[in-house]
Amino acid sequence: MSKLAGTLARVLAEAVLGRGRPAAGERFPEGCDETTCFLRLNRYPSCPISADAFGLVPHTDSDFLTVLCQDQQVGGLQLMKGTRWVAVKPIPGALIVNIGDLFQAWSNNRYKSVEHKVMTNAKTERYSVAYFLCPSYDSPIGTCEEPSLYRTFTFGEYRRKVQEDVKRTGKKVGLPNFLV
């Protein structure tokens, strides 16, 4: 997963910068390796009480990108498209790649972090596996071009601010905290 996520990140960076540019090279994204990234196994039990119960509340991912293998039959993943939620139909053998907040900041908003949620199923539990491409906490996150929409910040600073916002407001504010 680490190799796949790194390759995808470099290909996406090359699409923004052009092939051969230094930031799109072998070491992009800086600070990401097997020790900073992680794999999460998710289980969403069936919920016969409410058809509108969240398995996971609406959010964006705080990493560079996420590679997701969702349950091949149950479904439940939804993403925000414009102003409405759209179900992501499971396709056997397919992986889903979500752009995260760090990639949005680095690309100066050329790529957008996808808001998504998971809804429970009344009769069947759901499983998914997600790989998060994350840098070390002291890695600076800048943008690929000037003028930058965001000030430079570290991943650790970003994570701390997200946690503070959730405690204070009940939700993640995210990137707007780092706008210039």
From TrEMBL:
Residues 33-135 form the Fe2OG dioxygenase domain. InterPro entries: IPNS-like_FE2OG_OXY (IPR044861), IPNS-like_sf (IPR027443), Iron_ascorbate_oxido_reductase (IPR050231), Oxoglu/Fe-dep_dioxygenase_dom (IPR005123). It comes from the Eukaryota. PROSITE patterns: FE2OG_OXY. This is Fe2OG dioxygenase domain-containing protein.
